[in-house]
Amino acid sequence: MIKGIVLVGAGTVGRAILAAHLDVGVSVHLVDRDANAIRSAADEVNHALHRSVPVRVSDGFSVGDSLSAVSLDCGKTMIETPTIVIESIAERLDVKRAFFADAEKLFGDGAILCSNTSTLRIGDIASSLLRPQRFAGMHFFMPVDQRPAVEIIRGAATDDRTISICAEHASRLKKEPLIAPDTPGFIVNRLLSPYLNQAMLLLCHGIAAERIERAALQYGMPMSPLELIDTIGTRTTFDAGRVYWQSFPQRIAPAPMLGKMIKRGRMGKASGGGFYDYVDGERSDAISPEIAVLADTYHRPIGEVSDIDLVQLLAIPMLIEAAVVHQEGRVTSLASFDTAMRGGLGFSPNRSWTKWFADRADGEIVQAIDRWKQDFKSMNGDSIRFDFLTA
């Protein structure tokens, strides 16, 4: 029986999670259907870490449908107990349910099973398990090496011991555990989805990508929201956005671009092109001409938009969502919102996100909502209370 950390999925996100483990000296058993993907992942991570991590094939180890595995030994002792299985495979409910049903049989009573899902409810995945109390979400954020938080999602059946072990493991990776409810988008994606959608709508309304990027940086975000979509991946962003739209249609009018981009093969940074073009991982200065033409097909002018307006149009939909989450009783701590923004989304470490809004007069926020709510469903905050910021 293999003990220690088992990471399933050698794709873009899986590789980033692998690097996070090896970088702090935690050995990992990497598992994937494609043995070549595993070797490629090992080579990529070794190159990124500027050192060689021995790779040992784990003969006779399989999970489900012919998944092979290798061990990446960082030179330190394997964590013998408990076995933690972190899954980062296709974002499909049927695939994840089938995988975890197999993994539960293989690893037995002692294993803690974790999904890196960003869009699916933990309770829905756990319906295939005999021991759902040992199952939780462990959601890493891209780019993993730049995001110091991990969401730990508690399903309805998840027990305290499982949450404690997951949180301890996140801390071992030098990441801050953020305990999140099992609701659509958890915490971070619940705030992120309206922000990314708003950026795409602004592009469709004729706002230059350069202005959107400047506004995001002024707000306190680490990069353009369009570049962030490229980093996350077009498909993953589309899936997460669909979950948000289906759950909260009153607060979002989905931007039309992602579906078209998927059909055109513009899948994000990993594929060499999303909103921007990428050569050897380096982003182009301007968005792709193909994307500029696509955005122009949806062009609907909305009048003059100042730089201050742009910051408000990006920021306030996130505030509205946080206020709703607070009113629902899902998150009651301002610190949790700050951790989500700073640790999950890279918001400026030199300022508090909640204080950024608290320092602004209520009138300024209300005026912006009144001005833009007819143009953007995400600015519909008439029934929203913001006093939680100063409570």
UniProtKB/TrEMBL annotation:
Residues 5-180 form the 3-hydroxyacyl-CoA dehydrogenase NAD binding domain. Residues 185-278 form the 3-hydroxyacyl-CoA dehydrogenase C-terminal domain. It comes from the Bacteria. One of its GO terms (molecular function) is NAD+ binding. Keywords: Oxidoreductase. Signal peptide: none annotated. GO terms for biological process: fatty acid beta-oxidation. InterPro entries: 3-OHacyl-CoA_DH_CS (IPR006180), 3-OHacyl-CoA_DH_NAD-bd (IPR006176), 3HC_DH_C (IPR006108), 6-PGluconate_DH-like_C_sf (IPR008927), NAD(P)-bd_dom_sf (IPR036291). The keyword Transferase does not apply. The keyword Oxidoreductase applies. PANTHER family: 3-HYDROXYACYL-COA DEHYDROGENASE FAMILY PROTEIN (PTHR48075), 3-HYDROXYBUTYRYL-COA DEHYDROGENASE (PTHR48075:SF5). This is Fatty acid oxidation complex subunit alpha. The gene is fadB.
